[in-house]
Amino acid sequence: MAQPAAIQPERIAPERIAKVIARAGLCSRRDAERWIAEGRVAVDGAVLTSPAVTVTASSEIRVDGKPLPAPERARLWRYHKPAGLVTSHRDERGRRTVFAALPPELPRLVSVGRLDLNSEGLLLLTNDGALARRLELPATGWMRRYRIRVHGFVDPARLASLARGVTVDGIAYGPIRATLDRQQGTNAWLTLSLSEGKNREVRRVLEHLGYPVTRLIRLAYGPFQLGHLAKGAVEEVTGKVLHDQLGRGEPGARKRDAHRRR
User: Fold this and answer.
1) I need a surface site. Which of 77, 174, 182, 188 has the fewest CB within 10 A?
2) pTM for the structure as a whole
C-alpha cells in the first residue's frame, strides 16, 4: 500500500483548558469541566469558575494545587472491536463501551475515528488527542478498508459508480472503491475502500444503492491492519513503526518540549 504524504507537525496553538487537562490523562473533558465548576483548577494562580478559558504552552495549570503531569509520549494501539460495543467513554443508554472492555492497566485512551455499535474490526486507540485528530484528517490520504456483507443481488456496475462519489440525503461522499467478492444466495460480500470516513458513510451509501448492510468489518486504517488480531484483543504499535508511518519526528515530542519550557 502506498504511503501517505508526511504529516506535518501542527503549531502549538491556544486550546480550551478542559481539553488540555483531558489530554494530560487526568480525566475526560466533561469531568474536567465539572472540576473547573467546583473550583479545583487554577491557571497562572487564578482559580477558574468557567471552562471557557484558553491556555497556551506557557500557562501554569494546577489541579487540586498540583501541576499537570508532563504528557507522556504519544502511543497507538490496534484493537479488534467486537460488535455490540459503543465507541465512547460513556453511553447515556447504559450500553457497554469499548473503553470499559479494555484491560485496566492501559492508560486513558481515545479512539481514532469510530465504529458504530454493530460494526467490528480494527479500531485504533491512542493516549494522545492531537495524534487522533491528525490520523482522522482526510489530508493524510489514508484509506479505510472494509469487508462487508449486504442483503440483495449486487450489480458490480452500480458499485463501480461509487468511484465518482455520491450524494445521499444532501451529504456528498467522496470516491469509494467497491468490489463484489462473491454472491451467496440473497447475500453478498463486498470490499470497500474510502478515505473520508464520514459518520455511518458505508452503511448510508450502500443502503442508498439498495444493499442494506448486515455485517461490517474494518480490515485496515491506512498502513495499520487488523491482520490476525483476535476479537477483543489489543496490541500496541511499536514506537518505531509509529515513527516510520507518520513520516516525522517522534509523536508528542513538541508537546513534551513545550511542557519542559514552562
Assistant:
1) 182
2) 0.76
Whether 55 and 212 have beta carbons less than 8 Å apart is answered as no
Average pLDDT over residues 150-174: 95
Helix, strand or coil for residue 31? helix
Q: What is the pLDDT of residue 239?
A: 87
16 — phi, psi (to 5°)? -65, 140
Q: Tell me, what amino acid is at 120?
A: E
| 191, 146 Cβ separation under 8 angstroms | yes
Q: What is the pLDDT of residue 247?
A: 65
pLDDT digits over 89-128, tens only? Answer: 888 888 999 999 999 999 888 899 889 999 999 999 998 8
* φ, ψ dihedrals at 237, nearest 5°: -80, 130
Q: What does the DSSP 8-state code read for residue 221?
A: E
Phi, psi of 93 (to 5 degrees): -100, 5
**Annotated catalytic residue: which of 91, 116, 128, 169?**
116
Host H or E run for residue 244? helix 239-246
Which of these, 1, 4, 227, lies nearest to 122 by C-alpha position?
227
Distance CA 238, CA 234 (A): 13
pLDDT at 76 (0 to 100) = 95
- For 27, 185, 212, the CA distances from 62, given in Å and listed in that order, are 14, 62, 51
